[in-house]
Structures are given as C-alpha cells and as structure tokens.
Amino acid sequence: MANTFSIIIVTWNALDHLKTFLPSVAKSNYEQLEIIIADNASTDETVNWVNNSYPQCKVVTFDDNHGYCGGNNRAVKYSVGDILVFLNNDVSVAPDWLTHLDKAFENPATTIVQPKLKSFVNPDEFEYAGAAGGMIDYMGYPFCKGRLFDNVEKDLHQYNESTPIFWASGAAFAIRKEAFQELGGFDEDFEFHMEEIDICWRAWKIGYTVKSCPESEVFHLGGGSMPMGSSRKVYYNYRNSLMMLTKNSTSGNLFFKIFGRLLLDGAAGVRSLLTGDPKATWAIIRSHFAYYRRLPAMLKKRKIIRSSSTQEVPDGLIYPKLIIVQYFFKGIKKYSDLK
Q1: Which residues are paired to 33 by β-bridges?
Q2: What is the DSSP letter of 130?
Q3: In degrees rounded to 5, what are phi and psi of residue 261?
Q4: Which residues of the chain have pLDDT under 50?
Q5: How far apart are CA 339 and CA 326, in angstroms?
Q6: Which of 134, 137, 131 shows the shortest CA–CA distance to 326?
Q7: How far is residue 152's CA from residue 334's CA, in Å, rounded to a whole number?
Q8: Is 177 within 8 Å of 83 (Cβ atoms)?
Q9: Rounded distance, CA 46 to CA 270, Å?
Q10: How does pLDDT run across 228-275, given as a tens digit for each residue?
Q11: CATH number of the domain within which 47 lies
Q12: Residue whose C-alpha is closest to residue 71's, from 61, 81, 84
C-alpha cells in the first residue's frame, strides 16, 4: 500500500517564491498527498494568493515568525500523512519525485530520505544545500556527495546509487511522522541551519537510518531565506555547528574537540579579516559568545541524548579525517576523490 505524504512548506513574506515553485509541487504525479503551507505571519499576500490559486492546499497561519524549525514543528500537528516532507519554498520538483520516495520507504527500516538536490539555475549541477546526500567529518564539519565547501560538481550520475548518508538536507527532508514525533522534532534552539544534521544524528543514535534517493529529483534555488555568504548565515552556521557537536559527539574527549573547533573557527575568522570580509569575522565572534550562553542547555540535552541512545553511528558515515585539510591543503575538490 502506498504511503501518504504531507508536504510542509514554511514561508515568510516569500510570495514570489511560491508563485515560481509551488505550481510544480501541486502538479506532483502522486495521489495520496497533501500540501500544507505554513505561513510564519507574512505581511504580503501569501495567504490570499494560495487560497485563491491553490485551494487544494491547506494553509496554516501563525502569529509570529517561528523560523524553519518552529514553523515546521508547529505545522506537523495539522498533517495526516504517514511521511512528512519538509520542503523549502524555493524548490521545484520532478513530476514523479514522490513515487520514487514512496519506493524508498517500502523498506520499513528506512526512516529519513533525501532526494537528489540539483540546482534550479543550472539543472545539470548539484545544489549546494544537499547535493546527493550529506556527510560529516569527525570534527563536525558537514559536506555533501557532490559538494565540498564551495565546489559543486556536475551531476554525471556518479552518485546514483541509494546509500546510507549521515544527514538529509532540510531543503527536501522526508521522514516518517512517527519517528519525527519520537525525536521531538527539530531543535528550535537552532532556529535556522544544521537542525537537519542534528535530528539525523539523533536518529542514527536510536537505531533509525538515513538514506539518499537519487531517483527522486528536486531543484533548489538556494538563498531564499538567507543569501549565501551573508553575515547572518555565517553566524548561524558557526553557532549551530558547535551546538550540534556538543549535543551529539561521543568519539574522543568533548572538551578537546570543542577547543579544537574554536581554534579552527578563529583561524577562519582571521582568514575572513585578511580577505576583506570583517563582517564574517564579527559574525564568527558573535556566534561563539552565543554558543557559550547556550552551553549549559546543550550539555543538558547531551545528557538526555546519551541516556536514550541505543547505538553509535555506523562505521563509514563519519569521515575520520579533517575535511578542511583535504580540501584546502591537499586539493581534493570532489567527494569521490576522498579516501
């Protein structure tokens, strides 16, 4: 029996994106689905436009902007599907994308699935936010099959095999509803960025699995909520990476790992300053102070996660070397060239 899908699209003052991208989602070649537009108190005409143009969509309105994590968490209670698909408002989809996702979930052991993310602007290339599936190194630096740092590969079908991945991109994130609820949803302390890595890490620890589904293709514009390179994006990336590492890392001594990350972040801040980007440097500094304020709460969450964990992340899903060294010093630019 086919799964039922609840597609949740959180939006805030992004009517232009919805006009561009919602039509393809509404034309998905799959019968058992619902589309939920979760509006984070937009002041544009989002609600009226969706109601008039796509009355088949369920519109849920909130009284404040709860961000990606809060908006999605709140929208789940309005869903009826077996599978939740959290889709960014700047994503278009192939007509049969849900059919392929449905097949991926035929295996009852599969809990979280990411379709192949390709660029909306350059459809022959992977997209930065998730490419063919997310991975991570032992110091908590994320990267993707098809994207190392700013180097994005062309899709030459080199990653067309469905495999376990460490994390699935929040741009197109499919998860069994029961598992999402058991995991407590996205951690709203993250607000934006890396919340999907955090929940996948927690999922692996209690025996769930995360896989790629390259047959299912979606096309992501990117930068819809925060432009690439913005100081706000830098702030969230650095702060949330430290929070995620504190909550979930169990290999090695946590103190030394966090200390090492702080040193590496400091080096990145100096590099930004020397290359004429003082706003990025200041964003990294602010992210560290914000992390220190949240450290007691993260340590409490770490204790809860460790007490409920039933396994470690399987071997081979955490890259045992430092991806920064491989990329910047050894010149490795493709995932397939990593050993």
Answers
A1: 5
A2: T
A3: -65, -40
A4: none
A5: 10
A6: 137
A7: 8
A8: yes
A9: 42
A10: 668 888 999 999 999 999 999 987 789 999 999 999 999 999 999 999
A11: 3.90.550.10
A12: 61
Strands 33-39 and 58-61: parallel
Integer-rounded Cα radius of gyration of the chain: 19
Q: How far apart are the first and last CA of the chain?
A: 40
Number of domains in the chain: 2
Cβ-in-10-Å burial (0-12, 13-18, 19+) of 219 comes to: buried
Q: Which pLDDT does position 191 carry in this prediction?
A: 87
Residue appearing with tokens 């200041």: 282
The Cα–Cα gap between 74 and 124 comes to 35
Task: Determine contact, residues 210/168, Cβ cutoff 8 Å.
Answer: yes
213 lies in the same domain as 261: no
321 exposure class (CB count in 10 Å sphere: 0-12, 13-18, 19+): middle
Identity of the residue numbered 306? R
Q: Can you give the length of the chain in residues?
A: 339
Do 141 and 205 share a domain, yes or no? yes
Q: What is the pLDDT of residue 316?
A: 87
Neighbouring CB atoms inside 10 A of 314's CB total: 11
How many alpha carbons lie under 13 Å from residue 327 in its C-beta half-sphere? 17
**What single DSSP character describes residue 208?**
-
**Residue-wise pLDDT tens digits, 47-93:** 999 999 999 999 999 999 999 999 999 999 999 999 999 999 999 99
**Unique residue bearing structure tokens 């599978």:** 83
Give φ, ψ of 209 to 5 degrees: -125, 150
Residues facing 83 on adjacent strands: 5, 176
Domain-embedded: residue 87: yes
| pLDDT for 229 | 65
Return the DSSP state at 314.
P
Measured distance CA(287)–CA(232) in Å, rounded: 10
Yes or no: say if 210 and 163 are a contact pair by the CB < 8 Å rule.
no
175, 263: one domain: no
Residues 199, 236 within the same domain: no
DSSP conformational letter for 14: -
Structure tokens at 42: 């937009």
Q: What is the extent of the structural domain holding 265?
A: 231-310
Report which DSSP code applies to 152: E
**Token representation of residue 281:** 């440097």
